[in-house]
């Protein structure tokens, strides 16, 4: 995927109106089952909530911190309910080329319940949300943060190993971003 294609960043539903970029919301129930467009990748991260996603007829329960990925064209719906203080769901929708190797090879884990060690991922997501809320146009900073977030998302064990990035590389890149872009 070319960096310029990432500039078509996510359109996310955030009640009560549509917002550009990544979103965070506290209580949300999918009003209808949606089939994604053939060029839309969605990644959701549920924090301390209860409920489930239904993807292509299969249930994915929310358990602790839970990540799920909806690949282009997948039929899905969901119900999210806060379980304790600070509960929320982070959601990202990104337009992608279906031929992008990350999509064609489905490198992102489709469902990861009880995700541990995710503080860095959550901070990255929050930075992306803030930068999207602050800027009316897609910026280089937003694109860097989007790439950072995609690099931090858990990979499927069956994915081509040449498509992965080591934790050490991600940590160095994040340190550089933190030092130079704030």
List the main descriptive attributes of the protein structure presented here.
disordered N terminus; five-stranded antiparallel β-sheet; 5 helices; alpha+beta; 182 residues; 29% helix
Describe it.
It is built from five helices and twelve strands. By secondary structure, it is α+β, with helices and mostly antiparallel strands. A five-stranded antiparallel beta sheet has the order 3-11-6-9-12, with helices on one face. Strands 4, 5, 7, 8 and 10 form a five-stranded antiparallel beta sheet that branches. A two-stranded antiparallel ribbon has the order 1-2. A hairpin with a 2-residue loop joins β1 (11-14) and β2. α3 (119-134) packs antiparallel against α4 (140-152) and α4 (140-152) packs antiparallel against α5. It is globular.
Summary of the model, kept short:
The protein has 182 residues and is an alpha+beta fold. It contains five helices and twelve strands.
Strand and helix map with partners:
Blueprint (H helix, E strand, L loop, with lengths): L2 H4 L4 E4 L2 E4 L2 E3 L2 E2 L4 E2 L4 E8 L1 E7 L2 E4 L4 E5 L4 E8 L5 E8 L5 H4 L6 E2 L6 H16 L5 H13 L14 H15 L1
Antiparallel strand pairs: 1-2, 3-11, 4-10, 5-10, 6-9, 6-11, 7-8, 7-10, 9-12
Helix pairs in contact: 3-4, 4-5
């Amino acid at each position: 995927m070319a960096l310029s294609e990432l500039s078509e960043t996510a359109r996310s539903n955030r009640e009560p109106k549509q917002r550009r970029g990544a979103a965070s919301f506290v209580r949300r129930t999918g009003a209808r089952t949606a089939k994604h467009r053939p060029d839309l990748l969605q990644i959701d991260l549920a924090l301390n909530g209860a409920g489930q996603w239904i993807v292509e007829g299969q249930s994915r329960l929310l358990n602790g911190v839970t990540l799920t990925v909806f690949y282009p064209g997948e039929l899905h719906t969901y119900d999210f309910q806060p379980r304790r203080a600070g509960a929320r769901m982070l959601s990202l929708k990104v337009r992608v080329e279906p031929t992008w190797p990350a999509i064609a090879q489905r490198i992102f884990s489709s469902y990861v319940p009880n995700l541990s060690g995710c503080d860095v991922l959550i901070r990255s997501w929050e930075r992306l949300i803030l930068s999207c809320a602050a800027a009316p146009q897609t910026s280089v900073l937003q694109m860097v943060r989007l790439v950072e977030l995609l690099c931090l998302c858990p990979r499927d064990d069956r994915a081509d190993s040449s498509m992965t990035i080591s934790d050490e590389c991600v940590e160095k890149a994040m340190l550089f971003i933190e030092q130079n872009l704030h």
